[in-house]
From TrEMBL:
PANTHER family: RRNA METHYLTRANSFERASE 3, RRNA METHYLTRANSFERASE 3, MITOCHONDRIAL. This is RNA methyltransferase, TrmH family. It comes from Roseibium suaedae. Residues 44-120 form the RNA 2-O ribose methyltransferase substrate binding domain. InterPro entries: Alpha/beta_knot_MTases, MRM3-like_sub_bind, Ribosomal_eL30-like_sf, rRNA_Methyltransferase, SpoU_MeTrfase, SpoU_subst-bd, tRNA_m1G_MTases_N. Signal peptide: none annotated.
Length: 279
């Protein structure tokens, strides 16, 4: 589990005009290098919507950088006041510094740095759950972000990262979650621990597989459901597939070998949650 026990700070406001300011360099490092994110336990989320999502959900904010347009924006001002009251350092920056920090030509008006929350296996309580999505070695940040967003939309209990996965706190992943990262519990565990969890799971344990013999629309999914998705290149490993009570397949016609991982996850989740979701 990521250590989030940081000393409480008093909030403050600081103006930064230089690209070589150490905080600018620190944020650049968090944007571009997984090693920096892992060492510091911090990550970057761009945009005002993500800042309000993070603050509303009580995530600890270390820095909130606000560009010139944010200064006349009441929502941005409220976010800055909330973050400062909770101990964040508010960075007033110009557009050039914001662009340098985020390595983007058209940066957002607000960029936040938050403390990571990655839970361990004990955080998964099947008795309190709807559906958990377990991802076997997910590699693509966009897929992971889209799956977290979809998990949020269907009311899933959380997402489990099994084995060596892409960084859930990479900027591309965070962006693709559209703020759902701040609402969906994320758990990391190794394969052996996952196998133990699957063996004692009280509801349905379902894998998606291109060789699955069961049409995904036919099972009676018993809540809590554990839905296991395979790696983008290799699919589900045999020992992971054998953890599942059922291997489902989504029918395909045409020439595509398979569906995109995030698309297959979305289709499966909507079927699993079909009876619970209403307009
Ligand atoms: N070459 C890989 C293979 O042979 O499994 C393709 C993996 S696919 C891009 C990534 C994951 O999405 C699969 O492991 C499975 O979990 C899911 N998936 C994709 N298409 C599917 C389908 N038609 N039915 C069931 N699951 C599917």
């Amino acid at each position: 589990m990521t250590d989030t026990s940081r000393p409480q700070r008093t909030g403050a406001v600081k103006q930064i005009t230089s690209h070589s300011n150490p905080i600018v360099k620190e944020i650049k490092g968090l944007v571009s290098m997984r090693k920096f994110r892992t060492q510091s336990g911090l990550f970057v989320a761009e945009g005002l919507k993500l800042a309000t999502d993070a603050l509303d959900a009580g995530w600890a904010c270390s820095y909130l950088a606000i560009g010139p347009e944010a200064r006349d924006n009441p929502i941005a001002q409220k976010a800055a006041a909330t973050a400062k009251a909770r101990g964040a350092l508010i960075l007033e920056v110009n557009t050039a510094v914001m662009a340098a920090m985020t390595r983007k030509d058209n940066p957002q008006m607000v960029v936040g740095v938050y403390e990571q929350r990655l839970l361990n296996a004990e955080a998964v309580d099947p008795r309190q759950s709807t559906v958990w999505i377990a991802l076997d070695r997910v590699r693509d940040p966009g897929n992971l972000g889209t799956i977290i967003r979809t998990a949020d939309a269907v009311g899933a209990s959380g997402v489990i990262l099994v084995g060596d996965c892409t960084d859930p706190f990479a900027v591309e992943t965070v962006r693709a979650t559209m703020g759902s990262l701040f609402h969906v519990p994320l758990v990391k565990m190794q394969k052996d621990k996952f196998k133990q969890l699957a063996a004692s799971w009280p509801g349905s344990v379902v894998g998606t597989h291109l060789k699955g013999s069961v049409d995904y629309r036919t099972p009676e999914y018993k809540e809590p459901t554990l839905l296991l998705m395979g790696n983008e290149q290799q699919g589900l490993e045999d020992d992971m597939a054998s953890c599942c009570q059922t291997l489902i397949r989504i029918p395909q016609v045409g020439q595509a070998d398979s569906l995109n991982l995030a698309v297959a996850t979305g289709i499966s989740l909507y079927e699993i949650r079909r009876k619970q979701l209403e307009l």
